[in-house]
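Reviewer 2 asked us to include a model.

Predict the structure of this chain.
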Amino acid sequence: MKLIFEKGAEGRKLSIFGASDVPAVTVDDQFLRKEAPKLPQVSEQELSRHYSALERRAHGVNNGFYPLGSCTMKYNPSVDEETAALPGFTAIHPLQDEKTVQGALKVIALMEKKLSAITGMEQFTFQPAAGAHGEFTGLLVIKAYHKDRGDEKRTKIIVPDSAHGTNPASAAMCGYDVVNIPSGADGCVDLEALKAAVGEDTAGLMLTNPNTVGIFDKNIQEITRIVHEAGGLCYYDGANLNAIMGIARPGDMGFDVMHINLHKTFATPHGGGGPGSGPVGVKGFLAAFLPGQRPVEGEDGFLHMQTPEKSYGSIRSFNGNFLVVVKALTYVTMLGREGVLEASRNAVLNANYMRKMLEDILPAAYPVTCMHEFVISLDKLHKETGVSALDAAKALLDYGIHPPTMYFPLIVHEALMIEPTETETKETMDEAIQAIREIYEMAYQDPEQLHQAPHHTVIGRPDEVKAARKPYLRYQEEA
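Predicted model (structure tokens):
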């Protein structure tokens, strides 16, 4: 397929912009280009066909099943987009007088109230632009708390071996030493290893529950108690909150600070480079350390923006990606209390349905009732046929199915992590189950065909090592 720069001809053009509704401004010559930018010169038809062709090459939840584990690739209601596109939200500026943006401030305050009810936290900041940004923000809150108490000997963050990769990275970016602890045979935190790891230098623990293998840790309150008794704080990675929202609250489990991925759990677009939103919530004793400002309601409305007393500053401008918050608020409001609960129950039901339907050929790495996702190991299949998890994932593309997460978590060999989300129907899951079964049978009958998969996609299997080491990302105009 040609790039847009390779199409068109000199002098060809189209008109897609209306007349300017602002006065023309003359720019001084010193700020002008010496040469006009070399932009494509195409007709409207060429432009339309080009982007339509690109759309056909992309795979998203509107094209087919997208069971990407831990990433909650569910279908997002279009009403969320319609709400966020209202002029009252899109045509405002964060530096306007508070009296003129009362609706926007109420959105933030109302979303904080709803998230607090769902999580058991007491205050939120909406500055973080994504989940990992939220981790960084929350860890800085923990650091500020210990520093305020003069307890700066706490230099270590404990992270389980099944944690998301961003957890240890975020801790390291905040200047902490990362202490990795192993999982037990049940896939959950090894309590004895945790007890041995905590001490006077423990700043906190980072954990998600249910964890990365899709299991709700039955010892969660004991885990947070151990950390608290050592003087540390407990951070909840909200990546898997969609499995428990409306059922269990991180705050009640003993967590002190957490982030939520609005761009995952609460149905705003996920992927494609953003925008995201990773608001951070804290218990009351940590509220004074949050970054940024929050709207406070008085008799005359939201006319006062409050900076927390001991705030360490800001980690982004204003209140983050505001329109993502609008979308998430629309989603939660439309679902209501019972709808939020049903979404979690259906996510858990779907995952367990697929797990049970595949267990005779590809049992889960931890064969117990899972939450929203489960991990299967193709290690035995790989040893017997030479077909790897990568081969199976590539083969799924021929069925119009986006592959599950591959080779994660690292504690499971030849892993595929499957998350069917609450928005998928039984018929869709049955089609995916049948596809996986056919691939399993093919592994024993004709493994070479799977080594070459996919066969029916726009491109075949690329040289991934070369693509990673020598990426070709920029268009070079011919001389």
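The longest helix spans residues 322-358. The chain has a mean pLDDT of 94. We have added this to the supplementary material.
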